[in-house]
C-alpha cells in the first residue's frame, strides 16, 4: 500500500469536511475514504477526526498533522509540475480571505477572467472584515485591513485607497452640504462598525498638509458597507466609504460627493500569507493577482 495514498485521502477528507464529498473529489467510494483514514489512524496511533453522521472535524492531533501534510502535498505537487514541464504549475485549491467590500467590488468582477486564464485552480473565497487566524482557519492568503496582528505572517502592502464622502441629493436639499469637516457634527453620519474592535470608524481628512478627524454621530450604524450605502442612497445621511464602493452610485447620480477639497485615505490594506506557503506556485500567482488589483485602487 502506498503510504502517501492514505495521507492524500486524509487531506482531501479534512478539506471537504465529509467523507462523501471527499470521495467525489477522489473518485472512490465513501467507504474507501473511511477505511483509508482508519488505516492511517491505526498506523499513527492517534485519532485524526471526530466523526458524526453528517460531518467530520479534525481533532487536535489531526489539526497538527493536517497542516504539515497539506504543506508537504503542495510542495510535492509543485515539484512534480516543474519536473514534468507543466505549463500550469498552479493547479489545486486556494483558500483566500478578503474584506467584504474589497471582495464584492474589486475581486469578484476580476475573478472570472482570471480563472479563465488559469484553469485548474479551485478557489474558496471568504469575505469578512475581521482579522482571521490564517493557520487555524487554513487560509492560504488574505487581504487584511489595518495593522497585521501576527508578526509571523508576511505582509505585502497595497497602495493607499481613497475614500469619498457622499450623500444623496435629496438629503443635501433638506439639510445642506457641509463645507468643512467640522460641519459634519450638524449632520446624520452613517457609521461603520469595525469588525475587529466593534468601534466606529473615524473619518479622516487632509488638505494642504493639515489633517482633520471626525468621530461620526448619527442614528444608523452597520458592520456592512453595503447596508450603509443603501441608507445613503435613501437619503438617510452622509457616508464616507472607499471610492470603489460608491463609484456606481456616483456615476448614476444617486449620490454626490461633498467636501471635495479634502483628501481621505483608508486604513492600509495588505496581502498576507505564511512564509512557507509562498513557495507554492499557485500562491505566488494569487498574491500577484491581488497586488495587481490593489494597484488599481
From TrEMBL:
Family, as annotated: Belongs to the LysR transcriptional regulatory family.
Key words of the record: DNA-binding, Transcription, Transcription regulation
Residue stretches making up the HTH lysR-type domain: 1-59
Species of origin: Serratia nematodiphila
Highest taxon of source: Bacteria
MF-aspect GO terms: DNA binding
The protein's name: DNA-binding transcriptional regulator, LysR family
Matches recorded under Pfam families: HTH_1, LysR_substrate
Cited InterPro entries: LysR-type_TF_proteobact-type, LysR_HTH_N, LysR_subst-bd, WH-like_DNA-bd_sf, WH_DNA-bd_sf
Record carries keyword Nucleus: no
Amino acid at each position: 500500500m502506498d503510504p502517501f495514498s492514505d495521507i492524500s485521502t486524509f487531506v482531501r477528507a479534512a478539506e471537504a469536511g465529509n467523507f462523501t464529498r471527499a470521495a467525489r473529489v477522489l473518485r472512490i467510494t465513501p467507504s474507501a475514504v473511511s477505511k483509508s483514514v482508519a488505516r492511517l489512524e491505526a498506523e499513527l496511533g492517534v485519532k485524526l477526526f471526530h466523526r458524526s453522521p453528517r460531518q467530520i472535524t479534525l481533532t487536535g492531533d489531526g489539526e497538527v498533522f493536517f497542516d504539515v501534510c497539506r504543506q508537504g502535498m503542495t510542495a510535492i505537487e509543485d515539484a512534480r509540475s516543474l519536473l514534468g514541464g507543466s505549463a500550469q504549475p498552479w493547479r489545486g485549491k486556494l483558500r483566500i480571505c478578503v474584506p467584504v467590500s474589497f471582495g464584492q467590488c474589486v475581486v469578484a468582477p476580476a475573478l472570472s477572467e482570471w480563472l479563465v486564464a488559469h484553469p485548474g485552480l479551485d478557489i474558496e473565497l471568504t469575505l469578512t472584515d475581521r482579522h482571521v487566524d490564517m493557520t487555524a482557519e487554513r487560509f492560504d492568503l488574505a487581504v487584511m485591513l489595518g495593522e497585521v496582528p501576527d508578526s509571523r505572517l508576511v505582509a505585502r502592502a497595497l497602495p493607499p485607497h481613497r475614500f469619498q464622502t457622499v450623500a444623496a441629493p435629496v438629503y443635501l436639499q433638506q439639510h445642506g452640504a457641509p463645507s468643512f469637516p467640522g460641519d459634519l457634527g450638524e449632520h446624520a453620519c452613517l457609521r461603520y462598525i469595525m469588525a475587529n474592535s466593534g468601534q466606529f470608524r473615524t473619518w479622516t481628512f487632509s488638505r494642504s498638509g493639515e489633517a482633520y478627524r471626525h468621530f461620526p454621530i448619527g442614528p444608523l450604524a452597520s458592520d456592512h458597507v453595503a447596508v450603509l450605502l443603501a441608507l445613503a442612497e435613501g437619503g438617510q445621511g452622509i457616508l464616507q466609504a472607499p471610492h470603489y464602493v460608491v463609484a456606481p452610485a456616483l456615476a448614476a447620480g444617486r449620490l454626490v460627493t461633498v467636501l471635495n477639497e479634502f483628501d481621505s485615505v483608508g486604513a492600509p490594506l495588505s496581502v498576507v500569507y505564511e512564509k512557507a506557503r509562498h513557495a507554492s506556485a499557485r500562491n505566488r500567482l494569487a498574491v500577484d493577482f491581488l497586488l495587481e488589483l490593489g494597484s488599481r485602487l
